[in-house]
Amino acid sequence: MSEDISPLIVLNLKTYENATGKKAAIMANDLWEAAEVYGADLVVAAQATDINEIKRQVPELTVYAQHIDSYGYGAHTGHITAEAIIGAGASGTLLNHSEKKIDHGILAETIKVAQDRGLEVIACADSVLEAEQIADFGPNYIAVEPPELIGGDVSVTTRPQLIVDSVETVRKVDEGITVLVGAGVKTYEDVSKAMELKTDGVLLASGITKAEDPVEAFKRLIGR
Ligand code: G3P
């Protein structure tokens, strides 16, 4: 990877035990310190209930929610509002992750609600076709992740054609959308390959959250 290319690394903490509650804030802080030292571009996607504490401890880290709903203030029980995550300090959200799929009509509406309130949106797609469909909704980012590779040891970058097609397809619909890929990403080689194939970065989880030493895993991921 050339020196001037800085991949965006979006780390989804999911609901992993060592990345939940107090441990989420500790991991976020440790990774942010490493990102600062090495000049890496890091975003952490946290459970809604952990955003406030992460931002309290690491105010400069960019934190996204893992999901929000389209509802705003009012008589809506059990929903996560854009207003709530903004209040907690988030500046964006993942939407339509393979582990939290939403109907495309609702996705389009939620992207609009989020962006109207100033949130950035990473919309996830499980295929090139879905990436094309959701590009029309105008998210800031599209992250393409083959569901069958999520959480495993085979990286999405072993499917270069999928990546090339995703980038091409999304950019054909809207050149302004940033394209990420994810699933099974663990190494510097994976990240380099994703960049070589013209993505802007990666979305990952277990390569860091399940590592014995997440900071070391992060350093290896960014080639340090
Ligand atoms: O959101 C990231 C994700 O689904 C990929 O997970 O564990 O394969 O890096 P993982």
Give the name of the CATH architecture.
Alpha-Beta Barrel
* Gyration radius, rounded: 16 Å
**CATH homologous superfamily title:** Aldolase class I
Biggest pleated-sheet summary? 8 strands, parallel, barrel
Tally of individual domains: 1
**What structural class results from the helix and strand content?**
alpha/beta
| Helical segment count | 9
CATH class: Alpha Beta
Low-pLDDT ranges: none
Mean pLDDT: 97
Shape: globular
Short description:
The chain has 224 residues and is of the alpha/beta class. 40% of the residues lie in helices and 17% in strands. α1 (22-38) packs across α2 (48-57), α1 (22-38) runs parallel beside α9 (214-221) and α2 runs parallel beside α3.
Task: Describe how the helices and strands are arranged.
Layout: E1 8-12, H1 22-38, E2 41-46, H2 48-57, E3 62-65, H3 82-88, E4 92-95, H4 104-116, E5 120-125, H5 128-135, E6 141-144, H6 160-173, E7 178-182, H7 188-196, E8 201-204, H8 206-209, H9 214-221
Parallel strand pairs: 1-2, 1-8, 2-3, 3-4, 4-5, 5-6, 6-7, 7-8
Helix pairs in contact: 1-2, 1-9, 2-3, 5-6
This protein binds SN-glycerol-3-phosphate.
